[in-house]
Amino acid sequence: MAQSLINWFTNVLSFLPHEVVVFIISMIPILELRGGLVAAALFQIPMIKAIAICIIGNLIPVPFILWLITPIFRWMKSTKIFRPMVEKLEKKSMEKSDKIQKYEFLGLVLFVGIPLPGTGAWTGSLIAALLEIKPKKAFLAVCTGLILATAIMCFISYGIPFIIKML
After folding, report:
1. Dihedrals phi, psi of 131, to nearest 5 degrees
2. Which chain regions cross the lipid bilayer (predicted)?
3. CA pseudo-torsion sign 42, 43, 44, 49
4. Gap between the Cα atoms of 6 and 21, Å rounded
5. pLDDT per residue over 70-97, tens digit each?
6. What's the rounded Cα separation, in Å, for the pair 51 and 41?
7. What span, in angstroms and rounded, lies between the C-alpha atoms of 85 and 35?
8. Are 20 and 43 in contact (CB under 8 A)?
9. What span, in angstroms and rounded, lies between the C-alpha atoms of 127 and 93?
10. What is the pLDDT of residues 24-63, one digit of tens each?
11. How far, in Å, CA of 133 to CA of 127, rounded?
């Protein structure tokens, strides 16, 4: 699914410079840094440049989620139209929160850092906000998790293709 989303974005945004496409992909939930690094490798953007673009793109939404999502959700739940959507999103996010609740900082780092479907900076930040983890602590954990995710995804996106070429 992620690959088809990356392909869709790269086609739709083909009129933009590749770096801008990678930046936008990195900001989008589900794709985030992981999708951005895959797209950057496909565009043959140098790895160091891709890392900077993807981390910045993925981090931009995080403070807004950590500091603003709770009051926004509170307001949305007070409306008849948005209540079911917010409750479903909260329920789905909290289903993934057990390790974060138990290990807090380290749990959040691993949740954001290990590239599995449904994990990442967006969901990690949402869970941290719903669990009322202090925003500064959560932001540091998300940043640390992004470093871990970057290392893993750089190996997958740049390292493995390089090794295969060398064989």
Report:
1. -85, 0
2. 20-43, 50-69, 105-131, 138-164
3. negative
4. 10
5. 999 999 999 999 999 999 989 988 888 8
6. 10
7. 25
8. no
9. 6
10. 999 998 899 999 999 999 999 999 999 999 999 999 999 9
11. 9
Domain ranges of the chain: 2-59+150-166, 61-148
Q: What is the secondary structure of 109-127 as a DSSP string?
A: HHHHHS--TT-SHHHHHHH
Fill in the amino acid letter for 102.
K
Give me the amino acid identity at 7: N
Q: What angle do CA 113, 117, 119 make, to 5 degrees?
A: 40
Structure tokens at 67: 């500091």
Determine the average pLDDT of the residues in 108-126. 92
Q: What is the CA radius of gyration of the chain?
A: 17
Q: Are 157 and 41 in contact (CB under 8 A)?
A: yes
- Take residue 54 and report the two structure tokens written for it: 């993807």
